Amino acid sequence: MPVPNIEEENVSSAAPPVQSAEVVPMFTLKELIRFVSIVAAILLSANALVCWTWSYFFDLPGWIAWQALPGALAVVFIPATVLRFKYNHPALRGIYALSAVWMGALNFAFFASVACWMVAGVYWITGASLPRFSVAAVLFSMALAATVYGLINATLIRVSRVTVKLPNLPEAWQGRTAALVTDLHLGPLSGQAFLRRVIAKLCSVKPNVVFISGDMFDGPTLGLDQLVAPWREYSAPQGIFYVTGNHDEFAERNLYLDPATRVGIQVLNNEKVTLDGLQLVGLHDFEAGNPTELRSILKQIQIDRRQSNVLLAHRPINLSVAEEAGISLQLSGHTHGGQMWPWNLLVSRIYGRAAHGLSRLKNLQVYTSYGVGTWGPPLRIGTNSEIVLIQFEK
To answer: 314: buried, middle or exposed (CB in 10 Å: 19+, 13-18, 0-12)?
Structure first.
């Protein structure tokens, strides 16, 4: 459907910004050390299984020695993930990229290893001779193919289109479109070139407004003005609006918000604005993730239940609180749909119907995007890197 021409942006504040709560660290140092130790032990164990399986099935001696490199790549992913939030050295970016790719490859190599031993068990039970090399060659080739496909698939930006019907939709918004752009994760793996591709896709679909529901950043806080500079080249008739995700709050929040503001993006600081009669509410992740804070802020901004409204909140959680407050539509991201198998199964288990796509809780509709970027392993299998184009109808 053609996008109506809009002569003038009509943005008016309907309520003053609510004071943001202080963002506290997610972990104490002791908890962080314990968490890192547990994850490192799991990764080393998975890596050891893969190398042992290679050694046995491909008849390669000395597996303990030659697993050093893949083992190091598995373990270094954790400190590289932490350090990249404070440093922006090219060597660190390279190490992080290699370790992130290996994490994705290790995921499929681990399950290929498990499958090898399951096949070996079947041959042992039946008393047949096990063709070790052939079994391993097939299964690890499948793992390699999945890794390569996942890397390529993650680079392809798709547009997912959905029609959302809202009660009491203002006449001006009938047929208008909004682009939901979440989880760009701009940082070591996705920089200016990636952002320019996202903006080019937005230019091609011509949305009336752009909503960024968190995790625009994912890395060091240095050089962010240059990183987001491509946004200066793009504008939407009704504006670009942004709230933080959890990755935008690993450091002081304003370190991420200020560069976004300087390129013309409007930050919604736990507040409501009105766009041609449509109420737009934006809550940062820390506040939206706390049901008490969320309930308090939604009460303070005084949502008019007689009008349609849209809530930008990074994670699809505390949905009952939003529904009770009279929210018509919540737009979220965060889940990535799990990015790749088998994590998509875990994410679906955690978030249920709200893991991806359009779902409903009583009078509240929720759309959760896969996101346009990736976190950790830059792979996607069973999910897509997407921009969601939402068409509003009564």
So the answer is: buried
Contact 185, 215 (CB under 8 A): yes
Whether 243 is in a domain gets the answer yes
Distance between CA 260 and CA 271 in Å, rounded? Answer: 17
For residue 274, what are its two tokens?
Answer: 């009105």
- Helix or strand run (H / E) with residue 150: helix 132-155
What's the longest Cα–Cα distance across the chain? 78
Residue 64 domain boundaries:
29-153
Residue pLDDT, tens place only, 265-301: 999 999 999 999 999 999 999 999 999 999 999 999 9
pTM listed for this prediction: 0.87
Report how many domains make up the chain: 2
CB of 325 within 8 A of CB of 336? no
pLDDT tens string 77-134? 878 877 777 777 788 888 888 999 999 999 999 999 999 999 999 999 999 999 999 9
Where residue 307 falls (left for φ over 0; alpha for ψ -120 to 50; beta otherwise) is beta
